Q: What sequence folds into this?
């Protein structure tokens, strides 16, 4: 995708929006081809909405509690997203399991960031689980979203050493710092036309990425 034509991005979130802020800062501080055109939350009290408003980005709230089931909510969410005409949809702490119809609709243009070195520790409480397992390394992953929870081809992973005195919180803090590096990186790749989802997996500069994605060690 040429830089002259902005890559419209919609961000979905449910909480504080720290990854959104990292994306905003990266786009504003560089010649990025990406443009965040809307931020959508299922929670009206999500602080990420305030971050978006401060940056002049349109915000929308779609409360899942107002819908009878997941499929109806997802259909309304798709209609709202599509009205923004995005090239890319980002999950940034969006605490909803998405239906297969939603994931298929955005196939190849839906990215997620997860606080573990996938395929390890899908789901929640990843930092404590890494400590409980005695892992020497932990980290975070950006991946294309598929119907498998926290599955899908990996794009980039940042590896963080686990320290002997780490708590779940201290480990989380270091992982979060790396999330704020690799999510903007993946978005830049996509917006520049360097990253795409191929039939065999994630492709970067027309080269198939390894199963681990692009690895960054800190």
A:
């Amino acid at each position: 995708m040429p830089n002259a034509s902005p890559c419209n991005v919609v961000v979905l979130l449910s909480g504080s929006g720290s990854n959104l802020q990292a994306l905003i800062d990266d786009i504003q501080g560089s010649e990025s081809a990406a443009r965040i055109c809307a931020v959508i939350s299922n929670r009206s009290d999500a602080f990420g909405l305030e971050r978006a408003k401060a940056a002049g980005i349109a915000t929308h709230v779609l409360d899942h509690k107002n819908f009878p089931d997941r499929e109806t909510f997802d259909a309304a969410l798709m209609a709202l997203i599509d009205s923004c005409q995005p090239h890319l949809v980002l999950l940034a702490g969006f605490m909803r399991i998405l239906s297969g119809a939603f994931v298929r609709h955005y196939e190849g243009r839906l990215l997620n960031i997860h606080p573990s070195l996938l395929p390890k520790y899908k789901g929640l409480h990843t930092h404590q689980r890494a400590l409980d397992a005695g892992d020497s390394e932990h980290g975070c992953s950006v991946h294309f979203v598929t119907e498998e929870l926290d599955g899908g081809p990996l794009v980039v992973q940042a590896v963080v050493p686990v320290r002997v005195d780490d708590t779940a919180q201290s480990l989380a803090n270091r992982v979060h710092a790396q999330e704020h590096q690799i999510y903007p990186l993946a978005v830049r790749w996509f917006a520049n036309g360097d990253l795409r989802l191929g039939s065999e997996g994630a492709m970067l500069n027309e080269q198939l990425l390894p199963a681990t994605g692009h690895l960054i060690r800190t």
Summary: The chain has six helices and eleven strands.
